[in-house]
Amino acid sequence: MKRLIFSLLASSITLVSSTLVTDINGFAYKSPLVGKTVNLTDALVTAKGSEGFYIAGAAANDTRVSSGLLVFTTSATVLSKVAVGDIITLTGLVAEFRPSADPDFLTLTELESPTNIVVVSTNNPVTPIVLGRDRSPPTENFSALDVGPDGFLSVPNNQSQIDTVNATLLPESFGMDFWESLNGQLVTVLRPVAINFPNSFGEIWAIGDWPVTGQNSRGGLTIILGPDGIPDGQPETVIIGEPLDGTDNPEVAIGMVLSDITGVVTYQFGFYYILPLTAPAIVSSPSFDIAPTSLVSAPGDLCNITVGSYNVDNMSPQGTHIDDIANHIATVLRSPDIVFIQEVQDNDGPTDDGVVSASLTLSTLIAAIKAAGGQAYESVNIDPVDKADGGQPGGNIRQVYLYQPERLSLVNGTAGTALEAVEVIGTDGSPALSLNPGRIDPTNAAWQDSRKPLVAQWTTLSGDTLFTINLHLTAKDGSTTIQGNARPPVNLGVAQRTSQVGAVAAFASEIFAKDADANIVAAGDWNEFLQARSVFASLTPLLSDLDAVAGISPVESYTYVFDNTAEELDHVFLSPAMAARGAEAEHIHVNNWAPSFAARVSDHDPTVARVRVC
Ligand SMILES: *[C@@H]1O[C@H](CO)[C@@H](O)[C@H](O)[C@H]1NC(C)=O
Ligand SMILES: *[C@@H]1O[C@H](CO)[C@@H](O)[C@H](O)[C@H]1NC(C)=O
Ligand SMILES: *[C@@H]1O[C@H](CO)[C@@H](O)[C@H](O)[C@H]1NC(C)=O
Ligand SMILES: *[C@@H]1O[C@H](CO)[C@@H](O)[C@H](O)[C@H]1NC(C)=O
Ligand SMILES: *[C@@H]1O[C@H](CO)[C@@H](O)[C@H](O)[C@H]1NC(C)=O
Ligand SMILES: *[C@@H]1O[C@H](CO)[C@@H](O)[C@H](O)[C@H]1NC(C)=O
Ligand SMILES: *[C@@H]1O[C@H](CO)[C@@H](O)[C@H](O)[C@H]1NC(C)=O
């Protein structure tokens, strides 16, 4: 819509064809006026930054349509012409700017090449929209395009693209539409809560004082199934970017409350942002004391064993990282009877020289656990083929069992090598392993450039048999952002993870074929959320999720924090016989509740469980 107005810019009355800011934004993702040079007469300057200034026009009577806009300029001369509170007229080019070379990032509607800037009046009031009061983000879905039974986690993904569909915004229903409908708008967030550590640019994922779902006891939001039974990836979150005045955001930890911010909504680097006018302050902090697990083995009850699982983030014998891990195992996990460890590197860590043995890494770890007051452990692992299992090049990460020989003994057998497949042998009623320990189907294409599961058979103090599967599935690296163009977002490696879970399920089935009541614990870093149900579809009919057995609330089921959500990548599954006996479990947030990003020892939190084998 264009309108003809009488402008009193000059002493004589000139007829100028004028455009409204709301006309530029429109009610869809893309501007109806892209590529057009327009005159604006109703622009109130609301904020200034190094990349231009923000204006607000008259509000539309339509929450789909933003009345805010970035006027892009890096010219100090142009920037010096305007001040916050000025009403100006100007001419500019409407553009859809893609802020980086990544084609999955959305474009930003903005005005470029501003000219003819005339200040009409100064010191006008600037009134932000107060989020949580004037309007609030939806809490369930990101985009109407995330179709499929698993919502934003559905496969196949990238079935459509925001850019191409250019949908009419539905800000009451979809999180991306909500933030898009505020493009360039000045907003206030009351009482922001940090839901992640700052990223490397000092940017902070946060929620404000508005309704949220999936909130955990620390204040973060956990990926859960929504009331509609569809995965909820928490679209009500937003990232607080670099402050416009050049100040630095504080070094936050998860759960810290910040002072109110006022800033502008924008899109960059694959996410909707609020760029605050100035950095907020930390108003309150949660406690950083971590209670050690309450789940210790009960010496009088031979049927009970304690199980730990911990991704120790590229642990090598070099440096102090290994001592920090050992300290966690001794003092926070309190020396579980058996610990499933992932990401143990070879003896010279990432040095890429053909070394694959982790004997020194493990002897160093075991000594450090003892030195930290923990129990005496022995270890079991199988060296991979050099550089065949992915991860940091030359690090040769693998899974390892630490076990206390007084509590569990490894059943005598022949240890497998990297490429030997373990078979289920034995008789009906007493399955056994052809190799102990062994690796599941290591030459299966599902395990290419990925860690092969480490299987072992144990005899417990009670004389019962326990099978364990320690795994670390292929990672999500290279996935598209949660607020990117591809819908549902590209979840990299999802097909390979699905095949890997299938191989684990097939192996468990072979054990069950000989003993339906077998004790099996399958644990580790699955690199996937259980809400991505299609990935686990082959396994969930066979094994039970420990968190569900132990009755952990879904919002407290997390071991990892990435971008805007707390999420569980590390799962423990129990066989039906074990699940039927009940279990207790605790995710110990010793890393995600750290006082700072730098204070974390690993990117994953460990888990401790107490389970029954008889
Ligand atoms: C913008 O206004 C100027 C006069 O200030 C006029 O010359 C020009 O044609 C107008 N442009 C548009 C696109 O209306
Ligand atoms: C996007 O949709 C709006 C509203 O229907 C339309 O005006 C605009 O031209 C569309 N842009 C593109 C690139 O499809
Ligand atoms: C705004 O829209 C609502 C309904 O959509 C209508 O009732 C109201 O009269 C409109 N107000 C103005 C000022 O146009
Ligand atoms: C998504 O699909 C589109 C259309 O096929 C393609 O151009 C684009 O590269 C894909 N994006 C990703 C991240 O794979
Ligand atoms: C979210 O999307 C799903 C379809 O994927 C739909 O069934 C559900 O009603 C939506 N929830 C809300 C709150 O809009
Ligand atoms: C396992 O082998 C060791 C010797 O390697 C032997 O002492 C022990 O008795 C064996 N245990 C069983 C249960 O066969
Ligand atoms: C043994 O484990 C079960 C299941 O976790 C638990 O209910 C029980 O209290 C434990 N017994 C002892 C003596 O710790």
TrEMBL record:
Keywords: Signal. Coiled coil: none annotated. It comes from the Eukaryota. This is DNase I-like protein. The keyword Methyltransferase does not apply. One of its GO terms (molecular function) is catalytic activity. Residues 309-604 form the Endonuclease/exonuclease/phosphatase domain. It holds the Pfam family Exo_endo_phos. It comes from Roridomyces roridus. Residues 1-18 form the signal peptide. InterPro entries: Endo/exonu/phosph_ase_sf (IPR036691), Endo/exonuclease/phosphatase (IPR005135).
